[in-house]
Design a protein that fits this description.
This protein is 28% helix and 27% strand. It is an alpha+beta fold. It has 2 domains: 83 residues, Nucleic acid-binding proteins (OB fold (Dihydrolipoamide Acetyltransferase, E2P)), CATH 2.40.50; 256 residues, BirA Bifunctional Protein, domain 2, CATH 3.30.930. Helix 4 crosses helix 6 and helix 8 crosses helix 9. The longest helix is centred in the N-terminal third of the chain and has 23 residues. It is elongated, with a radius of gyration of 27 Å. The protein binds adenosine-5'-triphosphate (ATP) and magnesium ion (3 copies). Its cofactor is Mg(2+).
Amino acid sequence: MQDRTHTADAEPGDEVTVAGWVHEIRDLGGIAFLILRDSTGKIQIKFEKDEMDDDLVETGLDVSRESVVTVSGAVEAEPRAPTGVEITPESLEVVAPADPELPLDPSGKVDADLSTRLDNRTLDLRKEDVQAIFEIRSEILRAVRDQFREFDCTEITTPKIVATGTEGGTELFPITYFGEEAFMNQSPQLFKQLIAGSNVERVFEIGPIFRAEEHNTPRHLNEATSIDFEGAFCDQNDAMDVVEGVVKAAYEAVDEHCGDELEALDLEDEFGAPDEEFPRLSYEEAIERINATDELDEQLVWGDDLSTEAEKALGQDVGGHYFITDWPSEIKPFYIKDHDDDPDLSTGFDLMHPRMELVSGGQREHRHENLIEGFEQQGLDPDQFEYYTKMFKYGMPPHAGFGLGGERLIMTILGLENIREAVLFPRDRQRLSP
Ligand code: ATP
Ligand code: MG
Ligand code: MG
Ligand code: MG
């Protein structure tokens, strides 16, 4: 195979060897075109049948779509070509022929359902709009990392195979670990707290979480990417400031650096980064506003968790991102600290996008005795969590943090219908491979 010297964005005047996939062949009789595609775009290869070597013409025009070819020749300006240039080939080699029966059409002309697309991700990712989602995902993760560094955080990696889950319960995937029962971790919660209690103080992690969700929904995965923060000497308000900074940084990066990708997704006109401050509604205000919308069959009362319908009603009412703060203690986990002057109220908060929950966070219970009490109230055996609780006896500072769903962030930024579109190889109740 001849080595590639240029990509599909080659300029007129260059003598090139390009390599890529056969996107399309258009045979107009005396003249025919092969459109070659690579990660940078597409370039037209021109075949003038009477003036070119017969073998070259035959190889170039008989090759099946999506085969990998290399083409050598001169690049010339051609205003009628899709990208304004074309190559007159001197040689063409079929490097990897594609079966003419493709399970899906990478040109996007024929729609495929999501399941077929996920079964054939390699072909699916040859579509411009699908590739754009994952280029944007990569940019969002870069922006999030940079923003955490601005906030003086250290990136950490915590174990995913654990002896106890963060909150126990039916959401845990059990595994066998050298004959012992273990679990896939459902959140880095306990580990990040243990590190925030060291001199490292401020940490973040971007890593997988595993949850055996009871139902298939468009916003739950069984393996998701969690963007976590934990900071010593922070309270819930500081943690909300960090959330807001990170979410806005993600939007701004997409706005600034992903123009081509937004265009491929047809989003370039409507896209904008939020510039208003995210309002902070108390749980009490939230349920009052939900009740006032009259969207629900039954009025909410203090202590109720917010159903999907309730979240939607409030999301429409507010119209942008917003925080819900001061949740009832009893519906937040044991590690969330209660308000000192009102133990029924917690410091827990959620960040909501109008479509769904993006973040849960709060100030943490850092006092050993209160923490043990919290375990017992939640029906968990504190002895099983001794590796965690004992560190609260050796100088645990007040601290706060949050977990942000990475795929939910991507999904809401891009308006994707289904969270599976934001993951290369999603895991759900029906899907374990590829
Ligand atoms: P939900 O109420 O939507 O089930 P949660 O309250 O159970 O979410 P948390 O434990 O608060 O989730 O986790 C923090 C964040 O992680 C959530 O706000 C969400 O963005 C994300 N997340 C949680 N579970 C999933 C999942 N199964 N798939 C994708 N993202 C998830
Ligand atoms: Mg959940
Ligand atoms: Mg929730
Ligand atoms: Mg939550």
